[in-house]
Each structure stands twice: as structure tokens, then as C-alpha cells.
């Protein structure tokens, strides 16, 4: 399967275009180091964006650890960052920094083991990212071999002589929806299937009961965000996190979204608290023969352009039965009944 790995250096990504370009999985940087403020500022929106398009998602941490204690602290902060999400691809420990280069093979192998075993204890499928030189010269293979290897080697053919589950083969790939170069990868295992049988329930989740007659589940924690679906009173949801602005991040039958907290009965103890991400775009397909896109949310506004049946648009906002969309013709408002959301 073809995939990418991304971080803040790719900026804002159009995940619908990435998916349309044949990308099946994304390894997303959660952050680096061992302090909460070192979280990647694009991590949350990248995970939500990729998952909204059906792209399999994993996460990785770039390490600066110089001791076992540092690695354990990195594992703790990494767990805080990834706990709200259901990841169906591995989580990875990226060890390659120049500041670690003079550490002994024994200590580097201890650092890898300390981080990876702590993540395994929480039910995650863990892999080690390193380049060929580090794998052969900086680490003790017998100590790390039980973890899947994500090999970095920029070449037409990988020449690493030990098993590996993923190969990063270039840092200058081109993918629609991403400005500039991006790392390209090939996955050789069915990680989705492996993780289904491996992963435990996400740490910090809780059962929630809907108390509203009909509760809107939205793509972001805002009443302006796209409505993904509705859930009736007494139905159950899986509460993944408390959002700082009075909303909850939830899983509803496999669909990740946000609901207003006052309409969910749940136990908040142990749930992570996350900041509110920006509104997420959701891909939609035009179902009208020729759909008018207007300057405002209503038929009284002038028509800006038209979208033909079958064309893809990015839905950015919902208001009173109208969607604010972005497509190759521009931005504007259209009737929501003629857009089929691709959830």
C-alpha cells in the first residue's frame, strides 16, 4: 500500500485530494521530545482530515531522548497526544537525531525498548523508524528485532538485509493536495487487520448516553461545522475526549465527530482534555444535474457559478440547510440536499 508521512512542514493539507491521488495510509507526526508544548501544531487536524477521507492513520514521535528516563517521558507525552484517536496503523518511534549519534549502541537500544514497550503496554502496535545506517551500526538488532521496522532508505531498491514492514523511499515525493515535497512510503503488511486483533480500547474512553431528542454529530466542535449525522435519545456513543470549549469528541459506530457536551450523560474521570481544532473540511459529491452555488445561504443570493453532477467539492460549513463549499470554481453556498457527504 502507498502512503505518506507528514508533519507541520507540509502545512495545511487537502486530504480529499490526497486520497484521490491513491494514498492509502498516513503516518502523522504527533510531536517531538518530551514536553507538552512540543506537540506538532498540525497533528489533530491532520488525523481528523485523513480519517475523514478513509485514509488509514498512524502516528510517530521524533525522539531527542538521551536516556531511558527521557524515552519514558517521551512515551508519556506521546500517549497524551494520541489517546483521543483510534489509529488503525502503527505508532512509531523515530530515532535518528544528531544529538543521539554519540550514544552507545547499548544505550540507544535501551532507549528504543523503553519507549516501545511502554506504548505496547497500552495496547498499541509499535514500530521503530530508523535509517539503514542506524539500524546496522547504531542499534543492536537482537534487542530491537521484536518491533516492526520502518526503514528509511532513499533508493530505487531497499538493500537492508533484515525484515521490515514499511519502507520510506523518498523525501521529495509529489502528492496532490500537498504543497512541495513529501515523504513517500510503501507498507508491506496488512496493518489494519493486524491492529484489529491487537489493539485494546483507546485509553481514556467512556460510555456516553444521548439525552437530547436528536443530537447533531459535527466535523468540528462548532455549530457552524458540517453535520455528519444525528443520534437519537438513549443511544450510546464512545466519548474519546473532552474539548476545551464545551464539546466532546466521540465515536459513533466508527464515525469520529463532535457533540455538545450538555446532551451526553457520561463519566468525565480519566478522559483527556484537548483544545478545539479548527473546522474540518469533508468531501462531498454533487448529485444535481447542475447545482447553483450562491453568494449566501439562500435562494435570494446571486449565483456565482454552477457545479455539475458527480463533481467533488470540499464542504466547510453548514447553515440552515445550506453548505459552504470550496471547489475548483471557487467558494460559495449551495443547497445541502444536493451534496452527498463522503463519510
TrEMBL record:
One of its GO terms (biological process) is cell wall macromolecule catabolic process. The keyword ATP-binding does not apply. Pfam families: Glyco_hydro_25, SH3_3. It comes from the Bacteria. Keywords: Glycosidase, Hydrolase. GO terms for molecular function: lysozyme activity. Residues 205-268 form the SH3b domain. SMART domains: Glyco_25, SH3b. The keyword Cell membrane does not apply. Belongs to the glycosyl hydrolase 25 family. This is Glycosyl hydrolase family 25.
Amino acid at each position: 500500500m502507498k502512503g505518506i508521512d507528514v508533519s507541520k512542514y507540509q502545512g495545511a493539507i487537502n486530504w480529499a485530494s490526497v486520497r484521490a491521488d491513491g494514498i492509502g495510509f498516513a503516518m502523522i507526526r504527533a510531536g517531538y521530545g518530551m514536553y507538552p508544548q512540543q506537540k506538532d501544531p498540525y497533528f489533530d487536524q491532520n488525523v481528523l482530515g485523513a480519517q475523514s477521507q478513509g485514509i488509514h492513520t498512524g502516528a510517530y514521535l521524533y525522539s531527542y531522548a538521551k536516556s531511558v528516563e527521557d524515552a519514558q517521558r517521551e512515551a508519556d507525552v506521546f500517549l497524551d497526544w494520541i489517546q483521543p484517536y483510534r489509529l488503525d496503523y502503527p505508532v512509531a518511534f523515530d530515532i535518528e537525531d544528531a544529538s543521539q549519534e554519540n550514544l552507545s549502541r547499548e544505550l540507544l537500544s535501551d532507549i528504543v525498548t523503553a519507549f516501545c514497550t511502554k506504548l505496547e503496554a497500552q495496547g498499541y502496535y509499535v514500530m521503530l523508524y530508523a535509517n539503514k545506517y542506524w539500524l546496522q551500526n547504531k542499534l543492536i538488532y537482537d534487542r530491537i528485532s521484536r518491533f516492526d521496522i520502518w526503514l528509511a532508505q532513499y533508493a530505487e531498491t531497499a538493500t537492508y538485509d533484515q525484515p521490515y514492514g514499511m519502507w520510506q523511499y523518498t523525501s521529495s515525493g509529489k502528492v496532490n493536495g500537498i504543497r512541495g515535497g513529501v515523504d513517500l512510503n510503501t507498507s508491506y503488511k496488512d496493518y489494519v487487520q493486524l491492529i484489529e486483533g491487537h489493539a485494546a480500547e483507546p485509553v481514556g474512553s467512556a460510555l456516553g448516553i444521548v439525552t437530547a431528542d436528536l443530537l447533531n454529530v459535527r466535523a468540528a466542535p462548532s455549530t457552524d461545522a458540517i453535520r455528519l449525522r444525528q443520534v437519537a435519545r438513549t443511544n450510546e456513543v464512545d466519548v474519546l475526549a473532552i474539548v476545551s470549549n464545551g464539546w466532546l469528541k466521540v465515536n459513533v459506530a466508527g464515525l469520529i465527530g463532535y457533540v455538545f457536551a450538555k446532551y451526553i450523560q457520561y463519566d468525565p474521570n480519566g478522559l483527556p482534555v484537548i483544545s478545539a481544532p479548527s473546522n474540518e473540511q469533508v468531501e462531498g459529491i454533487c448529485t444535481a444535474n447542475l447545482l447553483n452555488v450562491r453568494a449566501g445561504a439562500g435562494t435570494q443570493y446571486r449565483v456565482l457559478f454552477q457545479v455539475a453532477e458527480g463533481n467533488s467539492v470540499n464542504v466547510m460549513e453548514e447553515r440552515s440547510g445550506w453548505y459552504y463549499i470550496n471547489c475548483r470554481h471557487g467558494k460559495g453556498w449551495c443547497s445541502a440536499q444536493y451534496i452527498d457527504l463522503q463519510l
